Amino acid sequence: MVRGLDHVVVAVKDLDAAGRAYSELGFTVTPENRHPWGTANRLIQFDGFFIELLSVADANLIAEPAGKQFSFGAFNRDFLACGEGASMLVLESKGASEDREAFLKSGLDVYEPFSFERTAHLRDGSTTSVAFDLTILNNPLSPQIGYFTCFNKYPENFWKPDFQTHSNGARAVQTVYMLAEDPSDHHEFLGAFTGQREMRATSLGLELETPRGKVFVLSPAGYRSLLGEAAANAVAGDLPILAALEIECEGLNTTRIVPANELFGLTIVLTPAKERT
Description:
By secondary structure, this protein is α+β, with helices and mostly antiparallel strands. It contains seven helices and 16 strands.
């Protein structure tokens, strides 16, 4: 099974400031939600994909990792100690046990099962419950990036049309851009993670199509060539990193690129919507 893009986690130090910045770009941003392990988030929902803006709300609640027990809070706390930006790449799941079996069969390093439930705050002030099963992987080639699949137990409580309506016309994810010194180093892990064994190698990098968006692993030269000087000059930190996210927008006439140094460590590319057949 080939897994589509589900969301990216964007670790930020000031959740309210990040929410305002994305709102000013024309995105609808959800109210704040809290995790039991000390982090808080605000979401930007599209058609089956979302951006999770995440910050540390109460460091005292964060548990340290132990063996194969992954600590979501500690991972993002430690990421923020080095800078802001996209800390985790997340794919859709049809079932956590199936994902786990497939990953182990492919020889991937899998953490212990991770499930949780939290309260979701809706636009009208009411609340509901959402719950998820995460299957989390360790990739020694990019330990500073978190990878997991996310099985949504109550999708009817999570996805809301009023959260998916944006004044800038944003409707769907197109591409997650990963930046690496040698993109070919990552073909084996990403092929097993996505389930997409057919990928396209070009002079720019490595391209993987999924049922919802694509993953494009670019060299620094390829990234500069494709996204331009402003985006390339905004890259910070050791490679590999999740450098940019491309979102399709209805009614947009020309591509707009907001570089990472102006938007909490992640470059956002807004592109005109393609006609659907």
